[in-house]
Structures are given as structure tokens and as C-alpha cells.
Design a protein that fits this description.
CATH superfamily: Vaccinia Virus protein VP39
Organism: Dimorphilus gyrociliatus
Protein name: Leucine carboxyl methyltransferase 1
Order of helices and strands: HHEHEHHEEEHEHEHHEHHHE
Structural class: alpha/beta
Largest sheet: 9 strands, mixed
EC number: 2.1.1.233
Number of helices: 12
Function: Methylates the carboxyl group of the C-terminal leucine residue of protein phosphatase 2A catalytic subunits to form alpha-leucine ester residues.
Bound molecules: S-adenosylmethionine
Number of domains: 1
Oligomer: single chain
Strand order of the largest sheet: 3-4-5-2-1-6-7-9-8
Distance between the termini: 41 Å
Enzyme class: transferase
């Protein structure tokens, strides 16, 4: 664990704060995020629309995956932070066999404590078949697991996933939402290769920066450095092509990547009108600039023919 790792963990607070600020202003509904963060600073409409597009598109892909596999699947969220997708999927009655979240122990410890204290969160984990096992940093229930691991350490990660009774032959979708960019390239390469080798029927959703070689990218890098956070994996974030190539060279067969500008464009007209009317919003250029610098990636390897390649990232309606 390094000084930089401590700062990286704090990025989870930023993400939670932005998500809660947007939820409080009606961009989307989430009954659980407020348990994990309090009193967020009010964020600008562009940031909230950006977060809406991120959350909506990632959840859309997850739901398609669950429907395609009829729930006979696993979800593994790497660097999950305070993500609340598990609880939101439960409310939509769209549940995988197993939902596994991984983060550094300092983050999982706080998440564990909050889940233990909040009945609304804890009762969703209840299951008749199994008792819930709770430790200081980890939770194991019938279908939800929260474990602490450094995802750069593959032996450690593998052991932790095994403690969640992961089945490498079951269709599995991995998520990294603003996570790979914090890892040195050698680590993200190894991680992606390991997953593509170990899980024959799998998909990967990656959301993170793109087009980072321009002035906007430079400013973001400088601002984060001031907060001791380095984007060590920024080399893969130069363009949509560098993002795609990283996955292809690490064994992923079908790979699609879209700038968030295009993801936003593909939302329905009525949804965009709703979002743009929620608050006084007159900085369309700023929104475009923000969306141009993030991307959504959908990769899959489909050895057991669940037809994962039918799921595409061009339709989010
Ligand atoms: C920007 S936050 C995103 C959190 C969550 N994915 C979201 O989108 O709300 C990045 C998360 O990745 C986690 N993370 C970064 N590097 C990691 C590593 N090597 N091992 C485990 N977790 C890591 C951080 O602790 C943090 O919670």
C-alpha cells in the first residue's frame, strides 16, 4: 500500500458525492446511496448529467447481461467503492446468482460498517438458505459478497474470489468504473489477461477517461497530481483505439468502445429533455467537453454461446 493508494481510495468519496448530489436533484432514483455519503457539495448540471449517463449505461449493460443469462450469472465489481447497484438490482428483481464487490480493505471496512448499521441495506442480503458472515472488512451472504483485495495482486484476488465460491464456468461480467486508470499498465494488462483466460464466458464493462492527450486531459492530470493521485494507466486512455487495443491484446475477442458523447446521443430524446430541464442548464459546450473525455467499453468472450455479442452499446433506451 503506498501514499498514492491512500489518495486513490479517496476518489471513492468524490464519486459518491457526485452521485448523491445528482440523485438529490432527481437525475435518477437511488434509495441507498445516501446511507454511504452525507451532505454532498452541490455539483453542476453537466457533472450530474455526466454521472447519470455513466450510471444509466453501466446498469443497462448489466441488466442486459442478467436477462441474457436468465440470472444464471455472476457480477464482479472491481474497485466497487460505495457502489449501490446490488441493492438497486434487487429492487428491480433482476438478480445474478452472485454479486461480488472488491476494494482495498480501508474502503470495504467502511462499507461493511455502514451495511451492518443500516437495516434497509442489510435486510436485502438476508437469505433463508445461508447465514450472513460478517467480519470487519468482509461480508458473505447467499448472493452478495464484499471482499478486500488489491486487484493488482492476482493471487490474492483469486483467493478472495474463491472465498466467494465463484464459479469460473458460469457467465460472469466484470465491472471497473473509474478504476483501471489508477493502475500501472502492467497490472491492468495482467488483470485483463487473467480474467479472459480464467473465465471462458465473460464480459467486461469498463468506464473511464479517454482522449486524454489534449489540454483538458493535461489539466485533469495536473489537478489530480496536486491531490497526490496519479493516473498511472493514462497510456490506455489516449483514444478509443488505445482502449480497444488494450483489451484485444489481453485476449478479449469482441470489444466495443464509445465516447460518452455518443452514449448520451443514443439516449431517448425525452430522457435528454428531462435531464436538461431539471436545473438551469446553459453550458452545453461544457457537457460536450466532459462527455468527450470519458468512454464506455463492452468486451466479451463467449465460449459457451450465451450470445453476449447480441448486447451492444449503441442502444440505451
Ligand atoms: C473513483 S473510485 C470508483 C468507485 C466505484 N467504482 C464507482 O464508480 O463509484 C475508484 C475505486 O477503485 C478502488 N481501487 C483503486 N485501485 C485499487 C486496487 N489496486 N485494488 C482495489 N481497489 C482499488 C479505490 O479504492 C476506489 O474505491
Amino acid at each position: 500500500m503506498s501514499f498514492n493508494d491512500d489518495a486513490v481510495q479517496l476518489t471513492n468519496d468524490d464519486a459518491s458525492s457526485c452521485k448523491l448530489s445528482a440523485v438529490q436533484r432527481g437525475y435518477w432514483k437511488d434509495s441507498y446511496i445516501s446511507f454511504f455519503y452525507e451532505n454532498p457539495e452541490r455539483k453542476s448540471p453537466e457533472i450530474s448529467i455526466g454521472y447519470y449517463t455513466r450510471v444509466h449505461s453501466v446498469r443497462y449493460l448489466l441488466k442486459e447481461f442478467i436477462k441474457k443469462t436468465e440470472g444464471n450469472c455472476q457480477i464482479v465489481n472491481l474497485g466497487a467503492g460505495y457502489d449501490t447497484t446490488y441493492w438497486n438490482l434487487k429492487d428491480d428483481s433482476l438478480t445474478p446468482k452472485s454479486f461480488i464487490e472488491v476494494d482495498f480493505p480501508a474502503v470495504t471496512m467502511k462499507k461493511c460498517r455502514i451495511i451492518k448499521e443500516q437495516m434497509d441495506l442489510l435486510e436485502k442480503l438476508q437469505s433463508e438458505e445461508d447465514d450472513i458472515q460478517l467480519s470487519r472488512t468482509e461480508i458473505h451472504s447467499n448472493d452478495y459478497h464484499l471482499v478486500s483485495a488489491d486487484i493488482r495482486e492476482l493471487k490474492q484476488l483469486e483467493a478472495k474470489l474463491q472465498s466467494c465460491r465463484i464459479d469460473t464456468n458460469l457467465p460472469t461480467v466484470f465491472i471497473t468504473e473509474c478504476v483501471l486508470v489508477y493502475l500501472d499498465m502492467e497490472y491492468s494488462d495482467r488483470l485483463l489477461k487473467w480474467i479472459s483466460t480464467k473465465f471462458p464466458t465473460s464480459a467486461f464493462i469498463n468506464y473511464e477517461q479517454v482522449n486524454m492527450e489534449d489540454r483538458f486531459g493535461e489539466v485533469m492530470i495536473v489537478n489530480l497530481k496536486r491531490r497526490n493521485t496519479e493516473l498511472r494507466g493514462v497510456e490506455a486512455c489516449q483514444s478509443v483505439d488505445t482502449q480497444i487495443n488494450r483489451f484485444k491484446r489481453n485476449g478479449w475477442k469482441n470489444v466495443e468502445c464509445l465516447e460518452m458523447t455518443n452514449v448520451y446521443r443514443n439516449l431517448s430524446t425525452s430522457e435528454k429533455q428531462r435531464l436538461e430541464k431539471l436545473e438551469r442548464f446553459d453550458e452545453k459546450d461544457l457537457l460536450d467537453q466532459l462527455l468527450e473525455h470519458y468512454c464506455l467499453m463492452w468486451a466479451n468472450s463467449d465460449s459457451n454461446s450465451v450470445n453476449l455479442s447480441d448486447v451492444t452499446i449503441t442502444d440505451f433506451t
